[in-house]
Amino acid sequence: MTAAPVQHEQHGQSLDPAAAQSAIEHAYEQGWTDGLPVVPATQDLVDRFLAAAGRPADEVLSHLKQVDRTVTVELLAINAAMAGCRPEYFPVVLAAWQALAQERTTGGGGWQSTSGPAPLIIVNGPLRQELGFNSTGGVFGPGFRANATVARAIGLTVRNAYGIRPHELEQATQGLPGRWSICLAENEEESPWAPLAEDLGVSGNAVTSTLLRTSEFVDNRHTSDPEQLLADFADTIGRSGPWIFRNAGAGVVLCPEHANQLAKAGFSRADVAAWLAEHAGRTTGQLAAVGKDRANENGVRFPGDAKDPDQFQRTIADPASMIVAVAGSRNAGISMVVRYFADWSGKPVAITTGTSPQKDDR
């Protein structure tokens, strides 16, 4: 038994599922998708994205020298539309792209790296709630259109504007499950500290971003000692597996329970970073056991002679390089260590809007 084709009526308009399916298949044939269906980017839809941002369509946002390709506001809007964003999300996508473009690694080999790094996108400000960004339960997971489609828009732009695709210009050995999906809003309502972007010098609506090698959870629900809790994070940050250079970059996205426990003990955001930077690492002997006890002139770790096996080598070179954000639910002591691909600029980008966003009720 087969179902007969149906034309749906919505808001007085006839919707043709067969036409939509044809457009989706056309996108697959052109190689525009990331493996999942995309939304057809009509000119009318793209124009609404451009209006929401209030920026010239041909404004150049970034240029990747090694592939000699450029991203304009219009190209970003097209990919945001295909990703399933609503037009009112586009200023967030724009700020996220600009935040990533200022990172040293994205102008080098970051997008093409063998580790297949994932962008981390952190949203601050009132727009979080206005646009429906998740900042609480399951914040690193799926289920919310704003979080999912803003992150996906970045991935489609890298694919379609720069031409960096798996098995072509992308060289990821295995890649990351969260390659194009880690966009979260900070839980400002339950954080004991000022919003992350505000602490970094940008108040209100803003995006902070960098590339990650991976993220790893720390489950610590029972200790009431703040230094025991921090030691658990430090142990995770200091493990040798992802440590391939003289130092490594890492931060933490604390659940509200952990953040408030630390704040009540007198720790500021900067104090947390300083404690972790001082205590995260391994001894030379421990690093020698895995062939990583010295760094050459390029900073890459290799086997050495381990003359002082008890010497402590710090993972984090500078506590100011650590993201300390707050997100998730206050229902368990589970937080996340985020490992940078290389470094982090520490520079958020303000989200600016153009004309009043047009609501898309489709």
Q: How would you portray this structure in words?
A:
This protein has eleven helices and 15 strands. It is of the alpha+beta class. The strands form five sheets. Strands 5, 6, 7, 8, 13, 14 and 15 form a seven-stranded mixed beta sheet that branches. The protein has a two-stranded antiparallel ribbon with strand order 1-2. Helix 3 (73-82) packs across helix 6 and helix 4 (90-101) packs across helix 6 (145-160). Mean pLDDT is 92; it is low at 1-6 and 356-362.
Secondary-structure-based class equals alpha+beta
End-to-end Cα distance: 30 Å
Radius of gyration: 22 Å
The secondary-structure element order is: EEHHEEHHEHHEHEHEHHEHEEEEEE
Number of helices: 11
How many beta strands in the DSSP annotation? 15
Unreliable sequence segments: 1-6, 356-362
Indicate the proportion of strand residues.
Answer: 15-25%
**Principal-axes shape call:** globular
Q: What's the oligomerization state?
A: single chain
State mean pLDDT (0 to 100 scale). 92
Q: What summary fits the major beta sheet? A: 7 strands, mixed
The helix content is: 25-40%
Brief synopsis:
The protein is an alpha+beta fold and 362 residues long.
Feature tags:
seven-stranded mixed beta sheet, globular, 11 helices, 362 residues, two-stranded antiparallel sheet, 18% strand, single chain, disordered C terminus
Q: What order do the helices and strands come in, and which of them pair?
A:
Blueprint: E1 8-10, E2 13-15, H1 17-30, H2 43-53, E3 60-64, E4 69-72, H3 73-82, H4 90-101, E5 118-124, H5 127-130, H6 145-160, E6 183-185, H7 196-199, E7 206-219, H8 226-237, E8 250-254, H9 256-264, H10 269-279, E9 281-283, H11 284-288, E10 294-295, E11 301-302, E12 312-314, E13 324-326, E14 334-340, E15 349-350
Parallel strand pairs: 5-6, 8-13
Antiparallel strand pairs: 1-2, 3-4, 5-7, 7-14, 7-15, 8-14, 9-12, 10-11
Helix pairs in contact: 2-3, 3-4, 3-6, 4-6, 8-10
